[in-house]
């Protein structure tokens, strides 16, 4: 049977030691890990259906819903289903898996993985090809853009028009949030594949925090505990 390269989940080595995870009971800890594995296996992008969540004891689910005031490991959606916090940042999404499958399918079309073959990279917008040194994925065809490298936040980055519109509608002090956001990611040495998407989630967390606590949005601290963990394997 062929090996399924997309059937896995990641956990960092210090995952059990994070303050938000360390306080969990054994049942809640196990439930969180099993939820991550379930979402990865069935490619739900971190969504746990309400009927599926019933397999775990209610006390464990309650712990995961309340193990952090601003960014708990689990949150309940309006329809009753649940969502694992930060799943899409650390685990493979359905879209990413499909992109990899396309790459593997193209490999097969070209004859699989012959030995000592250079990596061929095909640009999406043109027919020109490039090669990499041997040993960097021999025989593999990679669609350009399918694997985006995470980078540090550049000094030139600024919020988009959509960010400004969202902040205005929610009464958020955008300039203040930008300063907090930049200070946070620089202090933690965080990298990201899409800083615009990451800042959107920051603003969403700020909105949720303000709604739950009945406080002005400007006092919110939407930073995710996931950002304190290594890039590899965080899902909280």
Describe the structure.
- With 236 residues, this protein is mainly alpha-helical.
- The chain folds into 3 domains: 76 residues, no CATH class; 50 residues, no CATH class; 68 residues.
- 41% of the residues lie in helices and 7% in strands.
- The strands form 2 sheets. A 3-stranded antiparallel sheet has the order 1-3-2. Strands 5-4-6 form a 3-stranded mixed sheet.
- β2 and β3 form a beta hairpin.
- The radius of gyration is 20 Å and the shape is globular.
- The C terminus is likely disordered.
Please give a handful of descriptors for the protein shown.
mainly alpha, 3 domains, globular
Fraction in beta strands? 5-15%
Rg to the nearest angstrom? 20 Å
| Mean pLDDT score | 75
- Gross morphology: globular
Biggest pleated-sheet summary: 3 strands, antiparallel
- Multimeric state: single chain
For the record, give the distance between the C-alpha atoms at the N and C termini, rounded to a whole number: 33 Å
Report the order of strands and helices: HHEHHEEHHEEEHHH
Helical element count? Answer: 9
Helix content: 40-55%
Determine the structural class based on helices, strands and strand pairing. Answer: mainly alpha
Question: How are the strands of the largest sheet arranged?
Answer: 1-3-2
Count the domains: 3
- Number of beta strands: 6
Low-confidence stretches: 114-146, 217-235
């Amino acid at each position: 049977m062929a090996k399924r390269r997309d059937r896995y989940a990641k956990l960092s080595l210090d995952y059990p030691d994070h303050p938000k995870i360390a306080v969990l009971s054994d049942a809640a800890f196990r439930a969180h890990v099993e939820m991550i594995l379930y979402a990865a296996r069935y490619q739900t992008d971190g969504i746990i259906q309400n009927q599926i969540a019933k397999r775990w004891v209610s006390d464990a689910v309650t712990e995961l819903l309340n193990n952090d005031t601003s960014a708990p490991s689990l949150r309940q959606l309006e329809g009753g289903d649940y969502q694992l916090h930060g799943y899409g940042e650390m685990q493979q999404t359905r879209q990413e898996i499909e992109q990899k499958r396309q790459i593997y399918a193209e490999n097969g079309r070209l004859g699989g993985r012959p030995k000592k073959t250079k990596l061929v990279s095909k640009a999406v917008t043109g027919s020109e090809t490039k090669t990499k040194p041997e040993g960097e994925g021999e025989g593999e065809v990679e669609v350009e853009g399918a694997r985006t490298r995470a980078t540090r936040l550049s000094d030139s980055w600024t919020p988009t028009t959509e960010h400004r519109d969202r902040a205005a509608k929610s009464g958020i002090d955008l300039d203040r949030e930008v300063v907090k956001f930049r200070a946070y990611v620089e202090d933690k040495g965080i990298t990201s594949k899409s800083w615009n998407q990451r800042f959107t989630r920051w603003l969403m967390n700020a909105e949720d925090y303000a709604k739950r606590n009945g406080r002005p949005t400007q006092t919110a601290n939407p930073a995710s505990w996931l950002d304190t963990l290594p890039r590899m394997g965080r899902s909280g």
